[in-house]
Amino acid sequence: MKVLVTVKEVAAVEDEFQIAGTSIDETYLEYDLNEWDDYAVEEAVQLQEAGIADEVVAVTIGPERSEETIRMALAKGADRAVRIWDDALEGADLLDVGAKTAILEKVVEEEDPDIVLSGVQADDDGFGATGVSLADALGYEWAAVVNHLDQDSVESGTASVRRELEGGVEELTDVELPAVLTIQTGINEPRYASLRGIRQAQRKEIAPKTLGDLGLDAAAVENELELTDMYEPETESDATYFEGGPDEAAGQLADLLREKGVGAQ
Amino acid sequence: MDFTLPDEHRMIREEVRRFCDEEIEPIAQEIEDEHRFPEEIFDQLADLDVMGVPISEEYGGLGGDTLMYAVVAEELGRVSGSVALSYVAHTSLASKPIELFGTEAQKERWLTPLASGEYLGGWALTEPSSGSDASDMDTTAEKSEARSASERSGAAAEKDGDEWVLNGTKQFITNANVAGSVLVKAVTDPGEGYGGISTFIVDPEEDDGFEVTTVWDKMGLNASPTCEIKLTDVRVPEDRMLGERGDGWEQTKKTLDGGRISIAAISTGLAQGAYEAAKEYSTEREQFGQPISKFDAIRDKVVDMDRKIERARLLTHKSAWQYDQGQSVTRSSSLAKLDASEAAREVAEEAVQTLGGYGYTEDFSPQRFYRDAKLMEIGEGTSEIQHLVIGRELGL
């Protein structure tokens, strides 16, 4: 059984930074593996350690710099990686869900995995849609926001998962493989990479591929979205302290909520 | 000339740092307060292949170089001097000499469990009345006829032959009460001076007559045990002698060449930890309507810290690199140790000062770095001895 994990290098800004137009200068950015993807990698490696998966392949869309981050997935146990980059991608301000789906769809067709694990969302752009969109394009089944995966079920060709819904509600569901699961944080406890793992990862393959290699051209990744502005939202804090006993305080809270529009018809 | 760390080293630094921040830093003060050796941390470090970084893979180590080892030691020092000190004593003093001077059989029996982190190791040179004048030791090893096999202690008892009987007291021995093996220096040939010292592998658990008589309470580094040990007729078979009879002092000098890089690396880490605490505080703490880092007095302190740390790290990495090139490191490791240990004490002191009253409390880390840093100017050759070593290297 083959597991494909989509991983992304995300940028985080330092405490103090400056925005220039629609970008933030490199000096203020730190790059790291997307938090959700770290959990997806761990889940894949656990499937491998349980003898269920034979191969774990990490795939990423990113420039050469991102190899350092992607290599951490290899250090934790992924067998090899595929990295897609292209001049057409270099020039793009923003890669929307459609573009990522088009690229990853080709990679999945080439690799033919039994399960695709993808982080629920990326820490930076946070669309939270790539995994499900990919499943849709491939005609795969999917489960989004998975916070538990029954490993034994995977072996029998059906993934029994627990999904997180809104308001603390969870759903137990089965999806037929091949499928895409978007992985929620907390599904496992991502390991530290061992130093031996890090050393071995230096020799593992990260295969670079262009759009052309995947049979795509620049048109495939043309964006519907355009980045028009970037600004830091004003932060404001507004605390109200209610004096008096419970009855009085409850009354004041009710007034405030009504005033803010809660419960308005 | 390339000053960037190789990718592999950088990745290792990042992951070790993450481990240190998440697993060690939160308990760093607590283990000092409790004077507790954090066994669980060393178990985890063993799982992550940290315990044998510069030891060959053949014997359970990582097969990394000295530069990689220095990077790891610095990261440990950045959060806990105690963990770092026990780690480097284990690695450069207790493990490395077995790799350098041991027989194949000794490496398999004694190095593999150390390098794989099954247990920690110790190294015993100093004595109550022999510190800087280290070769003037009173611990003796006398050859004796073998007793019957059943009487002998230890796993090596099956080998027939003579035994060595060790007697003496060793002082300030890191890890002695948690170690699975201790390398003990003893006089085998009185009157031969430097050439009369030999090294023995002693098993604290199995060898009768090995006793930890004191675990010292110290100014700092209290989560790293520092012990006095007493050897009373400790009988070990011949195959416990490390290297040749009379090689003990030459081995010691080579061991301390690497040991000084270890202390330099920890010192750089202590300074880095103190600096980070001071820098963070100075940009958050406001007085007279602005962050105190905006005042020249505090800015200059923090800038000086950065300068001293950069210098200490460069010297340390250069010496580690030279070691990896097979070059002599006597001068460079001594310079690194001397400079980094002073930098650590100075930076930590200024970090305490930067935090003012808070810096003097145990709720903040600078006081811990200050306490820990002081030992770096004393252990593995005092600063005064480093001057002596460097003076000799300069032909003075």
UniProtKB/TrEMBL annotation, chain A:
Keywords: Electron transport, Transport. Residues 21-218 form the Electron transfer flavoprotein alpha/beta-subunit N-terminal domain. Gene3D superfamilies: HUPs (3.40.50.620). The keyword Phosphoprotein does not apply. Belongs to the ETF beta-subunit/FixA family. CDD domains: ETF_beta. This is Electron transfer flavoprotein beta subunit. It holds the Pfam family ETF. PANTHER family: ELECTRON TRANSFER FLAVOPROTEIN BETA-SUBUNIT, ELECTRON TRANSFER FLAVOPROTEIN SUBUNIT BETA. Transmembrane segments: none annotated. GO terms for molecular function: electron transfer activity. It comes from the Archaea. The keyword Transport applies.
From TrEMBL, chain B:
Residues 246-394 form the Acyl-CoA dehydrogenase/oxidase C-terminal domain. Its cofactor is FAD. Residues 140-150 have a biased composition (Basic and acidic residues). The keyword Lyase does not apply. Coiled coil: none annotated. Gene3D superfamilies: Acyl-CoA dehydrogenase/oxidase, N-terminal domain, Butyryl-CoA Dehydrogenase, subunit A, domain 2, Butyryl-CoA Dehydrogenase, subunit A, domain 3. Residues 126-161 are annotated as: Disordered. Residues 7-118 form the Acyl-CoA dehydrogenase/oxidase N-terminal domain. Keywords: FAD, Flavoprotein, Oxidoreductase. GO terms for molecular function: acyl-CoA dehydrogenase activity; flavin adenine dinucleotide binding. It comes from the Archaea. It holds the Pfam family Acyl-CoA_dh_N. Residues 124-234 form the Acyl-CoA oxidase/dehydrogenase middle domain. InterPro entries: Acyl-CoA_DH_CS (IPR006089), Acyl-CoA_Oxase/DH_mid-dom (IPR006091), Acyl-CoA_Oxase/DH_mid-dom_sf (IPR046373), AcylCo_DH-like_C (IPR036250), AcylCo_DH/oxidase_C (IPR009075), AcylCoA_DH/ox_N (IPR013786), AcylCoA_DH/ox_N_sf (IPR037069), AcylCoA_DH/oxidase_NM_dom_sf (IPR009100). PANTHER family: ACYL-COA DEHYDROGENASE, ISOVALERYL-COA DEHYDROGENASE, MITOCHONDRIAL-RELATED. Belongs to the acyl-CoA dehydrogenase family. This is Acyl-CoA dehydrogenase.
